[in-house]
């Protein structure tokens, strides 16, 4: 690949492209672009990317890139990510379907409360910019419940950066999602590695791109 890597960032559910600000600032030697899902009113956008780019997904953004990534991807970095989220007979570490179905019901009745509670559990103060868009949030939750991208993950050059203290993506879910040899653990981190450990993440991205 070229000496200047190109990273395409995809944020997770209940988040926005702004989560990538600290990491993009820590990558002065790279070109970057971000996908915006529009969960809080921003216009959804999928930027044009060059052949030879590397996808970087946080949480559900990993699942999005595994399922919908543009052509020309040469590798993927999952940050607090997974290749499947919901429980299945061969994926016992996933979240039970009934939990996600209840969350969909709560979202329909109280989008602000549902998103706030989720963000607090992730480790933020719960605040967000802009009004929640229930239609887009519902679409994202359905993808979390229904999508299985384990086969796609097995076919890509991949690195998984995981927080040992992640309250959303358990260590067992991480191990069930990816080959153990591709997982790099941060023993002190939770679910918000792009915000809490941006320099560490950026360093691993550059190592991956240059390998």
Textual characterization of the structure:
The protein has 211 residues and is of the alpha/beta class. The protein has a single domain, classed as Alpha/Beta hydrolase fold, catalytic domain (Rossmann fold). 38% of the residues lie in helices and 16% in strands. It is built from nine helices and six strands. It has helices at residues 21-25, 60-68, 97-109, 111-122, 134-146, 150-154, 171-177, 193-196, 198-210; strands at 6-10, 31-35, 53-58, 73-79, 158-163, 183-186. It has a six-stranded parallel β-sheet, with helices on both faces. Helix 1 links the parallel strand 1 (6-10) and strand 2. Helix 3 (97-109) crosses helix 4 (111-122) and helix 3 packs antiparallel against helix 5 (134-146). It is globular, with a radius of gyration of 16 Å. The mean pLDDT is 95.
Notable traits:
single chain, 211 residues, alpha/beta, Rossmann fold, six-stranded parallel β-sheet, 9 helices, 38% helix, globular
Describe the SSE topology.
Layout: E1 6-10, H1 21-25, E2 31-35, E3 53-58, H2 60-68, E4 73-79, H3 97-109, H4 111-122, H5 134-146, H6 150-154, E5 158-163, H7 171-177, E6 183-186, H8 193-196, H9 198-210
Parallel strand pairs: 1-2, 1-3, 3-4, 4-5, 5-6
Keywords: Hydrolase
GO molecular function, one term: hydrolase activity
InterPro entries: AB_hydrolase_fold (IPR029058)
């Amino acid at each position: 690949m070229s000496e200047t890597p190109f990273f395409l960032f995809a944020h997770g559910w209940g988040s926005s492209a702004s989560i990538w600000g600290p990491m993009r600032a820590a990558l002065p030697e790279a070109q970057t672009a971000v996908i915006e899902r529009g969960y809080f009113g921003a216009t959804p956008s999928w930027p044009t990317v060059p052949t030879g780019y590397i996808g970087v997904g946080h949480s559900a953004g990993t699942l999005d890139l595994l399922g919908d990534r543009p052509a020309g991807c040469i590798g993927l970095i999952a940050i607090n990510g997974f290749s499947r989220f919901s429980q299945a007979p061969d994926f016992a570490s996933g979240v039970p379907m009934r939990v996600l179905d209840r969350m969909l019901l709560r979202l329909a009745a109280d989008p602000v409360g549902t998103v706030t509670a989720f963000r607090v559990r992730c480790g933020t103060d719960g605040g967000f910019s802009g009004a929640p868009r229930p239609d887009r949030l519902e679409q994202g939750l359905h993808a979390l419940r229904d999508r299985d991208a384990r086969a796609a993950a097995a076919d890509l050059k991949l690195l998984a950066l995981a927080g040992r203290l992640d309250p959303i993506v358990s260590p067992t879910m991480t191990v069930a999602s990816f080959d153990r040899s591709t997982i790099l653990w941060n023993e002190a981190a939770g679910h918000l590695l792009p915000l809490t450990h941006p320099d560490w993440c950026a360093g691993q991205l550059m190592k991956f791109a240059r390998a």
